Amino acid sequence: MVHRFITIWNKTNLIKQISIGIGIGVLLAIIFPQAQAIGLLG
User: Fold this and answer.
1) Are 5 and 11 spatial neighbours (Cβ–Cβ below 8 Å)?
2) How many domains does the chain have?
3) Residues 6+ positions from 42 with CB-CB distance below 8 Å
4) Secondary structure in 3-state letters for the chain
5) In terms of Cα–Cα distance, which of 18, 17, 15 is closest to 5?
6) Where are the transmembrane segments (predicted)?
7) Which of 2, 14, 26, 40 is deepest in the core (most CB within 10 A)?
8) What is the pLDDT of residues 8-40, one digit of tens each?
9) What gap in Å lies between CA 10 and CA 6, rounded to an integer?
10) Which residues contact residue 12 at a Cβ distance below 8 angstroms, ignoring those fewer than 6 apart?
11) pTM of the full predicted structure?
């Protein structure tokens, strides 16, 4: 399962990877606003 995800992720172009990462970061910041680990990341 993880290997399949990594393979799909590596085939995705860089712009989409960055967009997905930003989207996940925004969701985590909204869901867990007081989490220190997320705050350290920016």
Assistant:
1) no
2) 1
3) 25
4) CHHHHHHHHHHCCHHHHHHHHHHHHHHHHHHCCCCHHHHHHC
5) 17
6) 20-41
7) 26
8) 888 989 999 899 989 988 898 888 878 777 666
9) 6
10) 20
11) 0.65
What distance in Å separates the CA atoms of residue 19 and residue 40, rounded to the nearest whole number?
Answer: 20
**Total length of the chain:** 42
- Residue linked to tokens 């860089």: 14
In this structure, which amino acid lies at residue 15? I
Quote the tokens at residue 8: 């799909």
Is residue 17 within 8 A of residue 25, CB to CB? The reply is: no
b/e code 4-38 from CB counts within 10 Å (16+ = b)? eeeeeeeeeeeeeeeeeeeeeeeeeeeeeeeeeee
Q: What is the pLDDT of residue 23?
A: 92
